[in-house]
Amino acid sequence: MKNEHPPVNGKKSILLDSLIACTLSLCAIMAIDHFNLLSYIKGNTNTVAQQEVAQESVCKFGFDVSGYFFNDYELKANQFLGDILYYEGINYETISELEEKSKDVFSVRKLKAGKNLTFVRPDSCAAPCGFIYQPDAYGYVLYDFQDSVQVKYIEKDVVSIVETASGEVESSLWNAMIDNDLEPAVIDMMEDALSATVDFYHAQKGDRFKLVFERNYIDGESIGVGKLLGAYYNNDNGDHYSVRYKSEDYEGYFDLDGKATKRAFLRAPVKFSRISSRFNRNRLHPVKKRRIPHLGTDYAAPYGTPIQAVANGVVEIVGYGRGNGKYVKIRHNKTYKTQYLHMQKFAKGMKKGVRVSQGQVIGYVGSTGLATGPHVCFRFWKNGKQVDHLRENFPPAKPMKESEKPAYFEKRDEMKAMLDAIPFKNSTNIPLVFNEDEAQS
Ligand SMILES: [Zn+2]
After folding, report:
1. Is the separation of the CB atoms in 15 and 71 below 8 Å?
2. Å from CA of 174 to ligand 1 middle
3. Which tops the pLDDT comparison, 343 or 250?
4. 286 C-alpha to center of ligand 1: Å?
5. Helices 10-42 + 46-56 axis angle, to 10
6. How many domains does the chain have?
7. Statement to judge: residues 56 and 151 lie in one domain
8. Ligand 1 centre and the CA of 185: distance in Å?
9. CA 364 to chain centre
10. Is residue 1 a part of any domain in this protein?
11. Do 424 and 208 contact (CB within 8 A), yes or no?
12. For residue 61, how far is its CA from the centre of ligand 1 (angstroms)?
């Protein structure tokens, strides 16, 4: 096999180094932003925060960037890892030990063409003393042979930055989300957090909302939204607040008085999904082309999207039907059961009698049975009859104990102040700045 292998290139290392430095400084800026918020909440923790950032900015993959050289090698199809390493100047003995030790950590068969191996050298023309492969954004495999040969999978740190958003409903919540450049995840979380106090089924023009939520970053790149920390919704019935509170005994969303604002049932079995067909007793069936009532709510989502149990319960059926495809039915209490149809596959361990908790993944979105595309047909059973869950008034989650309230009220006051400070305008993701001096400089 011919192997065109570029020689180690000093310029390339410098370029890469400055790229790393840029990414890291981006990291640092965001981390500081984040810590500003923390200091707002918890008092002054800036000193600690900055030290942490400074420490992080000189290391890459655990190597001090001032003492090592890095260069990327792009993997091509049909290459053997052993060949590449040998051409890099790594001896056979080390290579075979690496391959042996890698077996339990990361199979070399999972290396993908187009991705990089990042070689680390003690100086620009020396043989590598290690290399790195990053299968995804969440971590990397470190092959270290400075002293002894070691292969480790290292999970990367996730940094959460707090963001805010606001919006107004023009035609629908979905459009409000698009108009305000928000992700479905954020609106989804708001609807769940306020599901016991706001009727989102009847969201109307002029309804307004504000949100405080986390966004998660790895190496300065967003990997998606995290938790919703607080929400405000204003409609005909007035102001509605929802504050996330977590203590040893409680985790949930509560209003200004400490009453649960989240229902015992999640609104949708798929996160970040879109309703593609509502519950309708008089629907023209898309496959059968006849009027057949649609006794469920369809949530369109890509193949393989996790499907979650909407509430705690016990699995009653893990089955297959010609129309339903692969499906799971869960019993929640003596009144309610839920059913999830057209799954691509079931989650591991799903069988009759298994206990599931709210939010637990029970299967993955597919189109088995009679389905035109990937979606979950979600069916809600109340006393043995199928109902439209979006029109049901479910009981709220369990109330907070009196003894818990003082701690909650402290948290509530901070979050309410933050929500109230968010302006209404047609832009989103306004960075939070609490120190006015810093904002002006
Ligand atoms: Zn359906």
Report:
1. no
2. 20
3. 343
4. 10
5. 170
6. 3
7. yes
8. 22
9. 16
10. no
11. yes
12. 48
The token pair that represents 338 in the structure block: 């839920």
Q: How far is the CA of 395 from the centre of ligand 1 (A)?
A: 25
Dist CA 441 CA 436 (whole Å): 9
Residue 395 gets which letter from DSSP?
A: P
Distance CA 109, CA 80 (A): 10
Question: Domain of 77?
Answer: 10-155
Write the Ramachandran bin of 62: left for phi over 0, alpha for psi from -120 to 50, otherwise beta: left
pLDDT of residue 226 exceeding 50, the answer is: yes
- Residue 362 CA to ligand 1 center (angstroms) comes to 18
Distance 268 CA to ligand 1 centre (A): 13
Q: Where does the pLDDT of residue 277 fall: very low under 50, low under 70, confident under 90, or very high at 90 and above?
A: confident
- CB within 8 Å of 217: residues ≥ 6 apart: 27, 30, 158, 159, 160, 161, 223
Are 237 and 299 found together in one domain? no
Distance 354 CA to ligand 1 centre (A): 25
The alpha-carbon radius of gyration of the chain (Å, integer) is 26
| CA 295 to centroid of ligand 1, rounded, Å | 7
Helix (H, G, I), strand (E, B) or coil at 200: helix
Ligand 1 center–CA 369 separation, angstroms: 11
pLDDT tens for each residue of 171-202: 888 888 888 888 888 988 899 899 888 988 78
Question: Which pLDDT score is estimated for 57?
Answer: 54
Give me ligand 1 centre to Cα 99, in Å.
49
State in Å: Cα 284 to ligand 1 middle: 12
Q: Is 409 found in the same domain as 374?
A: no
CA of 280 to the centre of ligand 1 (A): 10
Q: Ligand 1 centroid vs 324 CA: distance in angstroms? A: 9
Tell me how far the alpha carbon of residue 276 lies from the centroid of ligand 1, in angstroms. Answer: 9
Nearest partner of 134 among 151, 120, 116, 150, judged by Cα: 116
* Residue 292 CB neighbours (<10 A): 15
What tokens were used for 110? 């999972």
Same domain, 188 and 277: no
Dihedral sign computed on CA atoms, order 199, 298, 243, 420: negative
Per-residue pLDDT tens over the stretch 132-166? 999 988 899 999 998 899 999 999 889 999 999 99
The answer on 149 and 15 residing in a single domain is yes
Q: For residue 56, what are its two tokens?
A: 């992080």
377 alpha carbon to ligand 1 midpoint, in Å?
4
384-391: average pLDDT: 91
Give the pLDDT band (50/70/90) at residue 131. very high
Please name which of 412, 321, 409, 303 lies closest in space to residue 364, comparing C-alpha atoms: 303
